[in-house]
Write a structure and sequence with these properties.
Number of strands of chain B: 13
CATH class of the domain at 5-104 and 113-144 and 159-173 in chain B: Alpha Beta
Structural class of chain A: alpha/beta
CATH architecture of the domain at 5-104 and 113-144 and 159-173 in chain B: 3-Layer(aba) Sandwich
Strand content of chain B: 15-25%
Helix content of chain B: 10-25%
Radius of gyration of chain B: 17 Å
CATH class of chain A: Alpha Beta
Order of helices and strands of chain B: HEHEEEHEEEHEEEEEHE
CATH topology of the domain at 5-104 and 113-144 and 159-173 in chain B: Glutaconate Coenzyme A-transferase
Strand content of chain A: 25-35%
CATH architecture of chain A: 3-Layer(aba) Sandwich
Oligomer: heterodimer
Distance between the termini of chain A: 55 Å
CATH superfamily of the domain at 5-104 and 113-144 and 159-173 in chain B: Glutaconate Coenzyme A-transferase
Structural class of chain B: alpha/beta
Largest interface: A-B, 58 and 53 residues
Radius of gyration of chain A: 18 Å
CATH topology of chain A: Glutaconate Coenzyme A-transferase
Chain lengths: 235, 215
């Protein structure tokens, strides 16, 4: 039996990183981000990355650490609010940002992974995000053409994996991870728990192992919370 | 007397219908959840992949893997389901979410709205707002009637970059409620806050609108 499990993030990334490559990352805010792999890619010093991710982390956590070390030259994202160094690089022109509506970003990633080069959506029609893109009318409404996205490397966070790379996500930490897992030429999953063959219920697998080439046990599971909101404060 | 944020949220909650799937935006719209009438069963949607949002957790219930689209910690309900971001926006784009209540910087008299960027200021990105206004069949905007500097937010045309065109069905402000039966129609003034006159509303509004039968 061939196992996809690697001991460390460095071993899992070995041979995959090169300057100028594209990396897609799962996660929403800081929820469900591949913390261990992001930290390892930051340590590797790889430069001039194009990153596909819904958000860009915060200054000292998640993708924010790669922003701070200036390893990212271009990012395709929907919302990058919580990151001051990001703002600075963006305003100074050091960092190129392509904003996508969040659902369009999700569908571009899904389409890319599914071999669909482009699709039409009503989202964004009549806004500056549709400028320069093909518009076609279906059923009386204008739609904008958006293209599928693929990445040289996809990194995701899951709850559990087996040696075949089958993945199960936990609660809302699923978010972009299942689609990001499909859009990488190579996909690495970091997981909270690795289980043995047959221990995942085949009916409950979210990402079949065909999409996942390498798996590591997550060394970082900080799971930082951005807005801890408690019942007492609840209005 | 102008309506408070909570009164605006309570007014918006009266638009909820039994069985609705509803997406609430960040800010005043989030307050709508506190005013859902006991006999109206609605399911709240969160763009990050949740149907069935529960209330904020106690300290013991906090789970970093259970957050809403505002990145706030929340709880599950017995009906809760989780899914990917692609599925979440398939629900939005596919018209399966019945109602979205969101904030706006500006709305114009054609029902186009702007709520994601101010040129010259830091742009954070549209998030899911463009998807929601394009895909959800009923859009209610909750916003202050005028900006902090006193200029009208319900305008002849938006001065800020659009989030979506011709998409707003109802506007609830601290002064008044405007609605229209479909997206080709003009807005009609439906209600004013207590002791707010039609004249008060007209003076604070740049958009043209019709007066409802009530007036």
């Amino acid at each position: 039996m061939i196992s996809k499990i690697y001991e460390t993030a460095e071993q899992a990334l070995d041979g995959l990183l090169r300057n100028g490559m594209s990396i897609a990352s799962g996660g929403f805010g800081l929820c469900g981000i591949p913390e261990t792999l992001i930290a390892a890619i930051a340590r590797s010093g790889v430069q001039n990355l194009t990153v596909i991710s819904n958000n860009a982390g915060v200054d000292d956590f998640g993708l924010g650490i790669m922003v701070r070390s200036r390893q990212i030259s271009r990012i395709i994202a929907s919302y990058v609010g919580e990151n001051k160094e990001f703002e600075r690089q963006y305003l100074s022109g050091e960092l190129e940002v392509e904003f996508n509506p969040q659902g369009t970003l999700a569908e571009r990633i899904r389409a890319g992974g599914a071999g669909i080069p482009a699709f039409y959506t009503r989202t964004g029609v009549g806004t500056i995000l549709a400028e320069g893109k093909e518009i076609r009318t279906f059923a009386g409404f204008d739609h904008v053409m958006e293209t599928g996205l693929v990445a040289d490397l996809a990194i995701v966070k899951a709850w559990r994996a087996d040696p075949f790379g089958n993945l199960v996500y936990r609660k809302s930490a699923r978010n972009f991870n299942p689609i990001v897992a499909t859009c990488g030429k190579v996909t690495i999953a970091e997981v909270e728990e690795i289980v043995g063959p047959g221990e995942l219920d085949p009916s409950q697998i979210h990402t079949p192992g065909i999409y996942v080439q390498r798996v590591i046990h997550a060394a970082c599971n900080e799971k930082r919370i951005e807005q801890k909101t408690l019942k007492k404060e609840a209005l | 007397m102008v309506w408070t944020r909570d009164q605006m949220a309570a007014r918006a909650a009266r638009e909820l219908k039994p069985g609705n799937f509803v997406n609430l935006g960040i800010g005043i719209p989030t307050l709508v959840a506190n005013h859902v009438p006991a006999d109206i069963d609605v399911t709240l949607h969160s763009e990050n992949g949740i149907l069935g949002l529960g209330p904020f957790p106690t300290e013991d219930e906090v789970d970093a893997d259970v957050i809403n689209a505002g990145k706030q910690t929340i709880t599950e309900l017995r009906r809760t389901s989780y899914f990917s971001s692609a599925d979440s926006f398939a629900m939005v784009r596919g018209g399966h979410i019945n109602l979205s209540i969101l904030g706006a910087m500006e709305v114009d008299e054609e029902g186009s709205l702007a709520n994601w960027m101010v040129p010259g200021q830091t742009v954070k990105g549209p998030g899911g707002a463009m998807d929601l206004v394009a895909g959800v069949p009923r859009i209610i905007v909750l916003m202050d009637h005028v900006t902090k500097t006193g200029s009208a937010k319900f305008r002849r045309s938006c001065s800020l970059p659009y989030t979506g065109r011709y998409v707003v069905d109802m506007i609830i402000t601290d002064l008044a409620v405007f609605a229209r039966p479909d997206r080709q129609s003009r807005f009609t003034l439906m209600e004013c806050a207590p002791d707010v006159s039609v004249r008060n509303v007209m003076e604070s509004t740049q958009a043209s609108f019709d007066l409802g039968d009530y007036f």
